Amino acid sequence: MKRLLLFLLILLFAYKKSNAQPDSVMIPDPNRFEHSFQFYFIPPLMGVSYTIYPNLKEIIKAQKASFPSLGQNVGYGMGFQKQRWKVGAMIEYSLLNNASDPQIITETNIHTADLNVGYAFYYGRNIGWFINIGLGEINYNLRLQEINLSSNQIIPINDLFASPSIGTSPRLFHKNTFGEISVERTYRPKRPMSFNVNLKIGYRLGINSTPWESERKITLLNAPSDRVNQVFVQCIFVLGRNREKLTPAQKEARKKQQSANDWGLN
């Protein structure tokens, strides 16, 4: 409950920040900016994903363990936007995507990287709505740990291997190339330097099924193959450096300046 309230407060703060530019007293014409270089950041509690590997999930459930589908992510990236078109790259890392049962703990870690291209199907004075498509790669690893909680245990500090751990599975790895489609709400820049919060909702699907692998020198018998299925929601903090369009007079002045700097070589 506390995490949910904290998330709602941060989301409200981000919403207020993202609306600061449109609510300003003097709003410059957004069409005066030709393109923008952008830096992306997804802070904690601002990225949520629901990830499923159908075949491995059934195997995990058969061993009376939980599969932690819901997780939190942080990330960073860069992008370039020119009017209705934009391209961007993002790297994401998971946070505390674990699940606990009475005797089994499932530990997971996720790392993704993707490149996408977007086009604004709606581009109003203040807000733009983009449809994005892209490709990326996800690296997912998982490990099960069984703990004996049937009785109280006493462990000497100089013999930590005498802990009540009954068994720890080898770490499982899965690498998958995926296709991505998403819808993103953005704000049009009004100043040379801008800060906004974009909302992005999307879906990722593995292009093909790849087998699960394990650590070095361990071969998995009857290892299943899977393709990633992931739904994600992100609030992306965007810092933009926006370049204004040149008027015809400014373009002509630039040409003259370039000609004057030719040092008579022409």
First-to-last CA distance: 72 Å
Give the DSSP E fraction (strand runs of 2 or more residues).
over 45%
Topology order in helix (H) and strand (E) letters = HEEHEEEEEEEEEEEEH
Mean pLDDT: 82
The SS-based structural class is mainly beta
Q: Please tell me what the overall shape is.
A: elongated
Number of strands: 14
CATH topology: Porin
Task: Detail the topology: elements first, then pairings.
Blueprint (H helix, E strand, L loop, with lengths): L1 H17 L14 E10 L4 E6 L1 H9 L7 E13 L2 E11 L3 E2 L3 E20 L3 E21 L17 E4 L3 E16 L5 E14 L3 E2 L1 E2 L10 E2 L2 E16 L3 H13 L6
Antiparallel strand pairs: 1-3, 1-14, 2-3, 2-14, 3-4, 4-6, 5-6, 6-7, 7-8, 7-9, 9-10, 9-12, 10-14, 11-13
Give keywords:
266 residues, mainly beta, Porin
Overview of this structure, please?
The protein is mainly beta and 266 residues long. The chain has one domain: Porin (Beta Barrel), CATH 2.40.160. It has 3 helices and 14 strands. Strands 1, 2, 3, 4, 5, 6, 7, 8, 9, 10, 12 and 14 form a 12-stranded antiparallel beta sheet that branches. A two-stranded antiparallel ribbon has the order 11-13. The chain is elongated, with a radius of gyration of 25 Å.
